[in-house]
Design a protein that fits this description.
459 residues, four-stranded antiparallel sheet, 41% strand, globular
Length: 459
């Protein structure tokens, strides 16, 4: 009898283990569109070319109320994840108030914001399309939607990227590396480019995560494949320049960071086999190093910390690294300065923030950490303040953080101690991983299936 009971117990434990660790199949959302949605036609669903998708009851001339604030690309207009002046954050959690929310396709993509418009690259599994969507920041109504056929199986969600806009055009990178550019007011497609077909790009595991950069009228992309980097004319999609890729480095989930070294403006990116920098003028190669790679997935973006120094971080036990890039005439060199173990600082998904000569970020284990620029820990949030792999930004003298399950925490910024100002659930979860966007007094967050806009009120 004891033997029989033991066998039954082991079988029960195995069945429990299978149910606990099996992936949850989240039912697809219909993105807030009813059964009369006219996009569900063979003409659009079967097209690989982008087309406007009619929205029931929405006129192409529907006005969009103007709203202050600018979060025009990944990590904000200057790619620092520090909001420009004019952004408003509540002083306590009581000042975090719901404004509107919409259903979105499963994923972690987040929006950019400009001129009262919110742009999101989404995926509609019911029509098998990538869809670039525009919402009014004021009330959340959908202004237009443009899509193209994209048969994609969910793999820890689908969408991961953030569009970029100059106010006239908005451009986004789809999960399978299709670039789409449309008119911001109408959603009318301007051009479309498949990076796999054109440049031999390898789609990263878990799909594309690179967030495009608009600079000087060009779309800058770290492609890998036949070219290391490319620049496309924003209005036409034509190739302006290409950087050779003799080592065959490939695209990751990281994004390009503009870094000025001396008097030279450069673009820096973490590829699968190292880090490279090129000239922003014409894309010619300047330097690379294979001293920094991350096993499994490279996600955080390089952070320039001044005087040619760049801070790199990653997950999967990678920790972090300070490098210094110097120029001596035509010669560029890279020096490995200091490595930090993951117990000091690393990051699975989010990119740390440089603010007032200190670095702020969430390390493996979920603790918020403040470091000086020598890698010394100034403070940590401790076991009482854990944020998982959720996003964060700095605005209005405060840090705004979201944990995995959608609870928002406000923290007073200083380099002496951790000073939380309160927490409040703002999403149901799970996986509230999409980067936070802010414009004026509006903050936009998302979890796996919902995007929500919050109003920040000073109390």
């Amino acid at each position: 009898m004891p033997t029989l009971l033991g066998v039954i117990g082991m079988v029960a434990l195995c069945l429990w283990g299978r149910s606990y660790f099996a992936p949850v199949d989240v039912a697809p959302r219909d993105l807030g569109v009813n059964s009369k949605h006219t996009a569900r036609t063979a003409a659009i669903t079967g097209s690989t070319s982008a087309a406007l998708i009619p929205l029931p009851g929405v006129s192409a001339n529907t006005p969009v109320p103007p709203m202050p604030g600018d979060w025009s690309c990944f990590r904000g207009p200057d790619r620092s994840n520090v909001a420009p002046p004019g952004a408003v954050v509540a002083n306590t959690a009581d000042g975090i108030q719901p404004a509107w929310q919409v259903g979105v396709g499963e994923g972690y993509a987040a929006p950019c914001i400009k001129d009262g418009r919110v742009f999101l690259l989404d995926h509609d599994s019911s029509t098998e399309q990538d869809v670039l969507r525009c919402f009014a920041l004021a009330d959340g109504h959908e202004v237009w939607r443009t899509g193209y056929s994209a048969n994609i199986k969910r793999n820890h969600g689908v969408s991961r990227t953030i569009p970029a806009t100059d106010g006239k055009s908005v451009v986004a990178l789809g999960p399978k590396c299709v670039v789409l550019c449309v008119d911001t007011e109408t959603g009318k497609p301007k051009w479309q480019l498949d990076l796999v077909e054109k440049f031999g790009v390898t789609v990263p595991e878990w799909y594309a995560g690179e967030c495009l950069l608009i600079d000087d009228g060009k779309v800058i992309i770290a492609t890998g494949g036949s070219s290391l980097f490319i620049a496309l004319d924003l209005e036409t999609g034509k190739v302006a320049w290409q950087t050779p890729n003799p080592k065959g480095w490939a695209m990751t989930h990281s994004s390009i960071c503009p870094v000025t070294i001396g008097t030279e403006k450069t673009y820096v990116y973490c590829f699968n086999s190292g880090v490279a920098g090129i000239s922003a003028k014409d894309g010619h190669f300047l330097w690379d190093t294979d001293k920094w790679t991350v096993n499994t997935a490279t996600v955080p973006t390089p952070v320039p910390v001044g005087d040619g120094r760049i801070f790199l971080s990653g997950g999967y036990n990678a920790g972090s690294l300070f490098i210094r890039v110097t120029q001596n005439g035509p010669t560029w060199s890279v020096k490995e300065e200091q490595r930090l173990g993951p117990e000091v600082f690393g990051s699975d998904q989010q990119t740390p923030i440089l603010f007032q000569n200190h670095l702020y970020g969430v390390r493996p284990g979920g603790e918020l950490v403040c470091l000086d620029l020598n890698g010394k820990q100034c403070w940590t949030s401790g076991t009482g303040g854990r944020f998982g792999t959720g996003p964060y930004l700095i605005a209005d003298g405060k840090m705004v953080l979201l944990n995995d399950q959608g609870t928002m925490t406000l923290v007073a910024i200083n380099d002496q101690s951790y000073k939380p100002l309160g927490s409040k659930p703002v999403l149901k979860g799970p996986e509230a991983w999409g980067p936070i966007s802010i414009a004026g007094d509006r903050v936009i967050v998302r979890d796996a299936n919902t995007m929500a806009c919050l109003k920040m009120v000073k109390t």
